[in-house]
């Protein structure tokens, strides 16, 4: 009886082992090969983020500038300052020279959503490109040729025909007093009583806390970032050395200089230092 029991137990183990092997074999036969696996489409990372992992979807707004409409996409929680930087790249208007209007003036630290900006909102942009600023002091091809000729012969600025047209009108009646051979810090009030190349009145206001130079004419005021002015050149006016001709370099060539006449000599160095980043006068 014991032998039969043992045999029966061994047979049972053998049967179970055989059954296991058959089952394993059957599973192996049914295992799909790698090339047969159906690939599952993985959702795009951006879509995944948009649909619930912290990234807010952009809204499309319309920005109106110079009677043209521009479609701009931006997150609603972005600040007005961020929008200005985006518009600077799109339209070429420096962010510091932009005013954005929607139900009044938008302030840099506001978010678009807090200002009530939603999808489809129209925002008005008021501002000027550097090319617009240069257009106020436009230079003809003849003027450029004359300046290049004078440059090659080292002719003083005050002797060049393009500048004599303004200088020959004489010192403006409201010119600030000039003092030669003296260096003074900029006065607290704007510098006024000067002329541009068209003979129009020019006033310079230095907003050092904003790193801006406000260039004002009768028609408008341009708020120039100091960093947009590449250089400042000047020369004294022969016979009136207490005054200078001063050029603000707004672009790569001489044609992109904004010329200002009858600048009091005592402030010229302070102007250069303020614009080019030397602050020892203040």
Automatic annotation (TrEMBL):
<dbReference type="InterPro" id="IPR000626">
    <property type="entry name" value="Ubiquitin-like_dom"/>
</dbReference>
<dbReference type="Pfam" id="PF25343">
    <property type="entry name" value="PH_UBFD1_C"/>
</dbReference>
<dbReference type="InterPro" id="IPR029071">
    <property type="entry name" value="Ubiquitin-like_domsf"/>
</dbReference>
<dbReference type="Pfam" id="PF00240">
    <property type="entry name" value="ubiquitin"/>
</dbReference>
<dbReference type="InterPro" id="IPR057455">
    <property type="entry name" value="UBFD1_C"/>
</dbReference>
<feature type="region of interest" description="Disordered">
    <location>
        <begin position="1"/>
        <end position="50"/>
    </location>
</feature>
<feature type="domain" description="Ubiquitin-like">
    <location>
        <begin position="59"/>
        <end position="126"/>
    </location>
</feature>
<dbReference type="InterPro" id="IPR039120">
    <property type="entry name" value="UBFD1"/>
</dbReference>
<protein>
    <recommendedName>
        <fullName>Ubiquitin-like domain-containing protein</fullName>
    </recommendedName>
</protein>
<feature type="compositionally biased region" description="Basic and acidic residues">
    <location>
        <begin position="19"/>
        <end position="49"/>
    </location>
</feature>
<feature type="compositionally biased region" description="Polar residues">
    <location>
        <begin position="1"/>
        <end position="15"/>
    </location>
</feature>
